[in-house]
Specification:
Length: 570
């Protein structure tokens, strides 16, 4: 794998330093809580929309999503099908209510509706899951870039974390919004450049339509799956049902998103910002997946490594399994050479059966890659070191480093780090504000504006250090983008159910909801562990719907059993 030269370093460093400096300079002097936590309510709809999008689009999106498409095709886009539905519901129900109550956090509303302990519980659930996610959004690019930059992983975790802490602590919500707007511009430019360069690097006789034919023949262009098979993780139904509940939870109750649109000038600006996000997000995810498809087509004409993780390859080649691994490499080279003739025949043939041979060749290659992962696992176990054999997250970065011109490599790395910084900044900002408003302010004596801003800065700083700590002890999952969504799905359905009870089930009161939420969280974690151990089959996306349904059901039953509960505030 190629290393960076001075041009790439210059582009990378200039981009990151400019973002941090700009965000810090533009938002200096926040003197009151309104300015620091809500950005003075000055954000326009396009700033809100881009900020909301940047919060969700972490480095994991730009590292893992192309690799997801490379391995599994376009089906992952179904995960986002519930987003537009969720945006409409939030614009009609959540935003007007939050604005009318003039809340700083989503959880303030729950005390007005239920009681303090329900507000505190949901705030703590948010802090747990978002604190873990913040660490992963730092760790995700760090573990990949540590291979690229030849830096120690611990050092990279600290550098990325500290860069984010500087402007987030300094400028609060407005600093996050201002920087995210420019980060998204850099991200869009970088991904467009990457796409056109991938297409330009295909053989001259391979037109764009032929590239699509090759991807289609390999089963990579199958976007929609209408089956009800729970073994298929991403289907139309899991996206529409599970995805809608996940997106409702994330955008409606997760403070890292709520804080983005609460900074809007008016209800209309907030609503337009979310609708803008709802309209653009699916095409953006489709495009990022499509970049991964084009990378797949590129490697139909350019031999790929058996495993894209260079560290894993290095370890196995220095182990007792080296000869077996070299045999797999030789077999893959033979498959690659045979595939060139197969593809040529497919493109020049009217025979519809020709596509089957491409699919069979790629299936054989996939089987080899699986065997390679098994050897890497054995090698890492025998050497007693942790090496990630699943290389989905390394596919796109491998292409960038080995095929893009100097300067553009630095730009694409800046895209990845910008995405990491933007998402982590939103998370730290939300963690700091939730801790300040929902825990510190609510449980201490009256504080001055200056004391509250100072406390917010310190809490944000503390969460930044905690996130760096989580990043330093994290381990890679099968796919990083899935790991973040799994963490969210374990908590989001429960929290969403509490909010839906508050909105639509007026007879349910605080004690019933509190007990229901506690029981539900235990049940959802148990269901996830049972699925993880293959006792049951319940893909994580469905946990959002199941958690929401369980907390509503339990709370309603408890309320019917204890009708004299008086713990209601409004």
């Amino acid at each position: 794998m190629e290393t960076l030269n001075w041009i790439d370093w210059a582009v990378l460093c200039f981009t990151l330093i400019a973002i941090v400096a700009y965000g810090t300079y533009q938002t200096r002097g926040s003197r009151n809580v309104q300015d620091y936590l809500k950005g003075g309510n000055t954000s326009k709809w396009w700033t809100i929309g881009l900020s909301v999008m940047a919060t969700q689009a972490s480095a994991i999106t730009f590292l893992s999503t192309p690799g997801q498409a490379f391995n599994d095709g376009m089906g992952f886009v179904q995960f986002y099908f519930g987003l537009p539905i969720a945006m409409v519901v939030i614009c009609m129900v959540f935003i007007p209510l939050y604005h009318r109550l003039k809340v700083y956090t989503a959880y303030e509303f729950l005390e007005n509706r239920f009681d303090l302990k329900t507000r505190t519980l949901t705030a703590i659930l948010f802090l747990i899951q978002r604190g873990l996610a913040a660490g992963i959004t730092i760790f995700a690019p760090a573990i990949i870039l540590s291979v690229v930059l030849k830096w120690d992983l611990l050092t990279l975790n600290i550098v990325i974390g500290l860069l984010v802490i500087i402007y987030t602590v300094s400028g609060g919500t407005r600093a996050v919004n201002v920087t995210q707007k420019h980060q998204m511009v850099i991200i869009f430019i970088g991904m467009l450049v990457a796409f056109f360069l991938i297409v330009s690097k295909l053989p001259q006789d391979i037109t764009f339509s032929k590239a699509l034919d090759i991807a289609g023949a390999s089963g990579k262009m199958e976007v929609l799956d209408f089956s009800f098979n729970l073994n298929n993780r991403y289907t139309f139904w899991s996206g529409i049902i599970g995805g809608t509940f996940l997106m409702l939870s994330y955008f409606g109750t997760d403070q890292s998103q709520v804080q983005r649109y609460l900074s809007g000038k008016s209800v209309k600006e907030m609503q337009l910002g979310l609708i803008f996000n709802g309209l653009l997000k699916i095409p953006m995810q489709f495009f990022i997946l499509f970049v991964g498809i084009m990378v797949f087509v590129f490697y139909q004409f350019n031999e790929a490594p058996v495993n894209f993780n260079p560290t894993a390859t290095e370890v196995v080649l220095q182990s007792k399994y080296a000869d077996e691994y070299k045999t797999l490499q030789a077999e893959q080279t033979a498959i690659f050479n045979d595939k060139q003739n197969i593809i040529k025949s497919f493109l020049n043939s009217d025979n519809p059966d020709a596509s089957k041979y491409i699919a069979l060749a790629n299936e054989a290659n996939d089987e080899l890659r699986k065997e390679a992962r098994d050897l890497i696992d054995k090698a890492s176990e025998s050497e007693n070191i942790k090496i990630e054999s699943n290389d989905k997250d390394y596919v796109f970065i491998h292409f960038i480093l080995n095929n893009l011109p100097r300067g553009l490599i630095g730009l694409l790395l800046a895209v990845i780090l910008s995405a990491a910084m933007s998402s982590t900044a939103s998370e730290l900002n939300a963690l700091g504000s939730t801790t300040t408003i929902d825990l510190y302010k609510r449980n201490t004596s009256e504080k001055t504006e200056e004391e509250m801003v100072k406390a917010s800065r310190w809490f944000t700083f503390a969460w930044g250090i905690i996130a760096i700590g989580v990043a330093c002890v994290a381990n890679l999952a099968e796919n990083l983008i899935q790991l973040v969504n799994i963490i969210g799905s374990i908590f989001y359905g429960n929290v969403l159910g509490v909010f839906l009870l508050a909105f639509f089930f007026k007879f349910v009161k605080g004690n019933a909801v509190f007990i229901g939420a506690l029981l539900t969280q235990v049940i959802v974690i148990a269901l996830y562990l049972l699925d993880l151990n293959e006792v049951i089959n319940l893909p994580f996306l469905w946990l959002n719907f199941v958690g929401c349904a369980i907390v509503i059901s339990i709370s309603c039953i408890i309320q019917i059993l204890i009708p004299n509960d008086k713990s209601i505030r409004s």
